[in-house]
Amino acid sequence: MNAFKAPVNFFPLAANALRILAMDSVEHAGSGHPGMAMGMADVMAVLASQYLKWDPCDTQWPDRDRFVLSAGHGAPLWYAALYMWGVLSLEDLKNYRKHASKTPGHPERGTPLGTEVTTGPLGQGLANALGMALSESLLRKEFTQTLVDHYTYVILGDGCLMEGVAQEAISLAGHWRLHRLIVFWDDNKVTIDGPVDLSGSDDIVQRFKASGWNTLCIDGHDFNAISNAIDIAKKSCQPTLIGCRTHIGYGSPNKMGTCQAHGSPLGYQEAQAVRKALAWPWNEAFFVPEFLLKQWKHFSQKSTTSHKAWQERFSTQDSSMQDRFSKAINGAALSQKAQEQLRAKGIFYAQERPAISTRSASGAVLAQIFPYTRLLAGAADLKDSTCTDPKEWTPYRPFLYYGIREHAMAAIMNGISAHAGFIPCGGTFLAFSDYMRPALRLSALMGIKVIYIMTHDSIGLGEDGPTHQPIEQLISLRAIPNLTVLRPGDSVEVVECWEIALQEKGPVILCLSRQSLPTFSKVYKEENLCKAGAYPLLPATKTPKVNLWASGSEVHLALTIAHELADQHSVSAQVYSVPWMMRWLQRYPEPWKCFPSDLQISIEASSPLGWYQVTGPGGINIGMETFGASGESSVLFKHFGFSSTAIVQKILDTL
């Protein structure tokens, strides 16, 4: 969308309105961050009123421009713009930072309407925006520029650029030449602790240039310079950084340009001094003159016109194109054909009962269902090790080579999912989930659909040793709210867990083995047993002497133990496979009470924390209490006590 001509005095008034509203929001709340909001108000005034193709009457219009406030602490600036559009009310601004308000301390996806992603942890928004720009590029190839023709804009600060995830994203964006990604850097040279040179002396612009970006440097308070820079950026064949030299707390006579303006209210006296310094004639808090609101909304009507034109273009497409586009954007994950492919694979595995790793089974499932889903696969330089390459590439659904950038991969996948059009799935080793945790947490916080394929899920990976062997990762990931963590025990459970991953609305992690495992499932049922969280594997007895609870590669060990107990010691045992622990605990907060036995035992080659809730007081929890070691997997399992001989003896001693 081209810039619209505004009255000469519009920009100064609009920018100052944003400043005053942001400042007043922080003053009213008694906490918040006025500095960045006041410093970037000029950029926001130009971008939001003149360039952003965004319909306040329909904030989910598929071909809207995406805006990401990566520096999420600047939320009052975004909220002020939403008020100018009419999306928020003055009451909403006055409720800034209050519980259950539409204006939380940092922007949250969908709260308020129009917020694309949750930001606050610095650097995440930039990587999210990369995912959005990538989605736009791929969808444009698939559905043509008639239906997909928009930009992704980002506002970030020095803090974002200090985070490692930002450099990972900068590198990939340049490599992928995402020319519809335009980033505004709030170059105010101040961080919370003081001047930015206390902690950094690198040349930011040269960093971007070296990564293949187009770079521009402007006065961030010069409206013409801002507009010209955006025009130039939109003509570039590279992603663009617009370095905006600004003053934090712009307009504050005593705090402008200092860290004092960053993260606390300016104070009543200083707020009044700001009004005077900006020649803002209205002393009433939260006041914006009606004529200015009308002018701003006049420009938003241009976006509404663009939206209507898009709807007309969409209506002229043939029904097949309309249907494909709607399904892509609305996220139809599990089509009937995909369901049929899953069923066929499940039946095959149950009949053939192969001894294969769950990562290999997952790779075969992915390849079979890929053509019938909107999956967009990738890996952090581990596509063969994680079996994440479906080998069904198209120009608009390529395999994504993220490189050794686990954190950016997760954050980019968040952006892909938030944009709509694809279901991102990406692979790495489970131990390296620690590199991804901030983005993983935001996946769960936003409740967006991302599938993480994490292999080499225990000491069973063997010779690579303790640096690569996950110990504490499973329990720590299970502790994240809204994150589904699945650990299938054989090839049939892999099929069922993939079905869950495609049906769940939020993020899912598939934890998969490197080593081959026997297939213990003898039949594939239409009823997905893994959806229950856990289920018994042996014929029911009245009350077994022992209940064995296990997940993943340890399920087969539990079955071996149960058979030894019955055949050699006349001790009855039941085995429960627990692929989805947290679902099971939601259903049965104290399983040891609901499924009684003389002895409850859990077996998992991971930290035993969490299993105490399953086995209860007096239970035995066999897990990893130390880090692993380098060696053959069979040797390691025996060394760390995961053998039928050792566990059977422990059971007999306890009974």
Automatic annotation (TrEMBL):
Sequence positions that bind substrate: H33, H262, R359, S385, H456, D464, H468, R514
Site note Important for catalytic activity, residues: H33, H262
Domain Transketolase-like pyrimidine-binding: 356-519
EC number, UniProt record: 2.2.1.1
One Pfam family recorded for the sequence: Transketolase_C_1
Reaction catalysis annotation: D-sedoheptulose 7-phosphate + D-glyceraldehyde 3-phosphate = aldehydo-D-ribose 5-phosphate + D-xylulose 5-phosphate
Protein name, UniProt field: Transketolase
Species lineage: Bacteria, Pseudomonadati, Pseudomonadota, Alphaproteobacteria, Holosporales
